[in-house]
Amino acid sequence: MTAPPLPPPGAPLPHYVSDRPFDPRSIERLSPAQERVYLASQWRLMWWKFKRHRLAVASGLFLAVLYASILVSELLAPYNYQTRHIDHIYAPPQAIHLFHEGRFVGPFVYGQTYTLNMSNLKREYSPDPAAVHPIRFFCRGDGYTFWGLVESDVHLFCPAKDGTLFLLGTDRLGRDVLSRIIYGARISLTIGILGVAISFVLGLVFGGLAGYYGGFVDLVIQRIIEVLQSLPSIPLWLALAAIMPVTWSPMIVYFAITVILGLIDWTGLARAVRSKLLSLREEDYVLAAQLMGANAPRIVGRHLVPGFMSHLIASATLAIPSMILGETALSFLGLGLRPPVTSWGVLLTEAQNINIVALYPWLLLPAIPVILVVLAFNFLGDGLRDAADPYK
User: Fold this and answer.
1) Is residue 171 a contact partner of residue 146, using CB atoms and an 8 Å limit?
2) Quick one: which of 132, 125, 38 has its CA closest to 89?
3) Does 250 fall in a domain?
4) Cα gap 153→24, rounded to integer Å
5) pLDDT tens figures, 285-327
């Protein structure tokens, strides 16, 4: 086989590259399943991988239901969280029944009668089989102001007329524990979101500055972080709680606690962001962005932060339950929110006395939603972290 003749001097060299539009599927015959994966966007790949983590999906649905419930807490609670039933102080939980004397009645509870034990001055309650209290649905009960704007008295379910419905018992003032847990979710769940938003902004800004610029900026920020991390948490909480005037309204105290938690919790994230940026800022694409005239905020936000998004997602989902636990601990110690504001931490202050817990164990029930929410956020974080790297 002879070689093709060379072109004359100065003539363009021949080439054998086709100028037709390139079709990647023409090289290899793809199955429909492979084609669906190869042509999917990154967000779709992340969603497919997240759906395979069943525990994370269940946790996400559970948290979505909880956060949706705080929008209609007044409607879901059978009583107003401040309503007192002086004839039912420390009443135990009432069980729901469907059948009475072999006949289907529907959901109902038996009434309660009590006697005073003179040896320990404890009210001893017992169900009254003759008092059948059917549960009403979409009914009128205690009045409330929906989100402080609209007056109403409609509830999803209510006790019978002249009856009681204490599914989780009552506290020392005769207030329904279930209603107070439902109202307390609005504070305890939102304080985690707001606190994480504050800590994330501070962590990304200061960690980004330290990791991208380095040098003197990094030195100053690292010394500030070390000073904040060296302060013991409880004395710091005591000091910050002491400077809040007692004349502040509960809503102002709520936002103050949120800011305090956000200001304390940003140092760990800043350290993590700094370490990631120190390694990523030496990459070639960062140098290319600098040569093209991109400024520092754009390089950090557009090119560097997405490089460790999985770490940020895991940090966020772990920081939210830590904020919830922080508010619970502050309120439990009497340093956080104060009545009449209701949160899960405020409710747990009833359980500080071991004698009260021994006699009335249902006062510990507000700890159950705290545990469930913390576990759900951890499982959701695992699923989101894995889904953020769909190519692994």
Assistant:
1) no
2) 125
3) yes
4) 64
5) 888 888 888 888 888 878 787 777 777 777 777 778 877 777 7
Query: Domain range spanning residue 244?
Result: 179-387
The answer to the question of residue 267 being in a domain is: yes
Asked if 132 and 99 sit in the same domain, the reply is: yes
Tens-place pLDDT, residues 43-79: 787 788 888 889 999 999 999 999 999 999 999 999 9
Instruction: Indicate whether 153 and 192 sit together in one domain.
Output: no
151 φ, ψ (degrees, to nearest 5): -80, 135
190 plus 138 within the same structural domain: no
Is residue 106 located within the same domain as residue 255? no
Claim to verify: residue 301 and residue 183 sit in the same structural domain: yes
Of 346, 345, 338, 274, give the one whose Cα is nearest residue 311: 274
Say if CB 285 and CB 341 are below 8 A apart: no
User: What CA–CA distance (Å, rounded) separates 223 from 228?
Assistant: 9
CATH number for the domain that contains residue 374: 1.10.3720.10
Where are any strands of DSSP class E within the chain?
97-100, 103-117, 122-134, 136-146, 150-158
Give me the phi and psi of 305, to 5 degrees please.
-60, -45
Please state, in angstroms and as integers, the Cα–Cα distance from residue 68 to each residue in 279, 320, 344, following that order.
40, 17, 17
